[in-house]
Fold this protein.
Amino acid sequence: MPLDDIAVWGGRELPAKAPSFGGLMVVDVDRWPSRPQLAAWTVRMDRPALVAQVGTDGQPEALLMDRQGRVAGHHRGSVASGRLTVHQILGRRVGVLLGAEVWMPEVGRALGLAGVELVVGFRLPLTGSAYAPLWALAQQNQWMGVETGVPPRLVVPCESTPDESGVLAAVGEGSWWRLTPPWNERRRLVERDALLAQLNPAVYLRQPWWED
Amino acid sequence: MGGHDAWQLPVGRVLLTGLAAWQRRRLKLPSPTDVKPMAWSRRQLVVAGVQWRMEPVRALDAWVDRLMAVLDEAHHLGAALVVFPEDMATPLLGLLTERVGTPSAAQLSDAEVGERLRAWADAVAPVYRDIFGYLARLYGLVIVAGSQLATVRGRFHNQALVFGPDGRLVHRQPKLHPLPLERRWGVDPGTEWHRVPGVTLPLGVAVCHDASFFETFRLAAAQGVELMAIPIADPDPDWREAKARRGAWARTQESGLPTVVGAGTGSLYGLTLTGKAGVYVPRELTADGSGVRAESEHPVGEGLSAGVLDLEQLAAFRAEARSGMPTRAVGRWMEAGYRALAEAVMGSAP
């Protein structure tokens, strides 16, 4: 079954019970339990999970656990680690953005060029604006983003929402929140009007700003 | 703009060239006397974006009167920089089309529209440059005269023109990212991006869709730009705030570089344009958290949006509050990603 909707946990500790929906769980806790406990929890939930915490160095980090309880990915920030990782989760390409790296648009672009459909953002800077930085990255890369927090929300290309706001609210079910990305609308948009195909890589390669 | 056979394109070009030159000769323009460049400081820089109703120009003198009314207001406010909309020169095709009829562009194929634009745009270019150079000198300010379609060394560009306060044309910046519609008209993307030379303002120009991509602002920041001018003309009759916030406003929030937007509105050859002129700064530097220093009230109509910028405050903000240039590792991803994209799109990377 392909990844359809996403269950975002609203608490600060691992939930005891699995939600009745959600092909992927997104959980942001104060502190991870031990790896064996986390593995056992994921097996009990019977679905993959992205689980974030603030590490001992004060920076956010996230683990992707597969449904067998194995660590499928460990994110300490793409910029900090120098590693860009894209996951295949139930047939969807998924990336992760952590904290202030949402202000580094290169990361969002690199994920876009790597073909991600969905990016989960943990501990993003609070701006109080509907047009927060993850929203802006979703627009210029045409991927969809999950802003964790309470309540979480989906930010997607404007054309993928009926009111063209590019924002989709979560539906609360107890302490879980359900997010349903408009996968098909987004796919049709990219097929019709692919923004990344309108980039001008020849200029960027000729005038690389990333070199000293 | 339509209804012509192919042979009429060169004839129209000759006619348009003659009409433009004739109307230019008839213009009675006051001679600039003792004009000093508008004073500005890094702490107090007044900038203005023009919201301009696009309509085919029938009479050059009336068009210049409208331009001078806007610039009078900007001058009164103390603006050192005024930004006009994208495609500012295209209405000058009206010098011809208003005399021979103006069927909608929708009645022509994109290729036919492109043929006419390529055949006729260069005919009005000298008049357009002449008038904006004159106005920059008359008012003593930097004018980003919106953009014009022009053939440059065999490539058809949508290029922004910048005039210094002495009236000199100091910069031409082709649009790097033409819209798919423009591509179908045959507009070629620019091949380089440069900071505006020859003026004291640390200024860059990005044409409309260029502001949809963070790369343009990285190119600017790497060249020491501290202020971006964005001429826009959005052919979308259904203006929505969210869609508008995807461009200059979002790039300002991301990069910390303030933007001055000149916006085209109205209807031109069957295309309905909407947009707001504005001055945008990082949200944190506005009392209401909007990031809007000044903005047109409505996405239709005409007017001036002016605001004051403190370049020192903005520089301090960027140093403190935003991610700087990418690390070497991130740069390697970008290089690899762009190279793969270039090979996929163009068949080869430079």
About this structure: The two ends of chain B are 38 Å apart (CA to CA). The longest strand of chain B covers residues 142-152. Chain B has a mean pLDDT of 92. Chain B is about 35% helix and 20% strand.
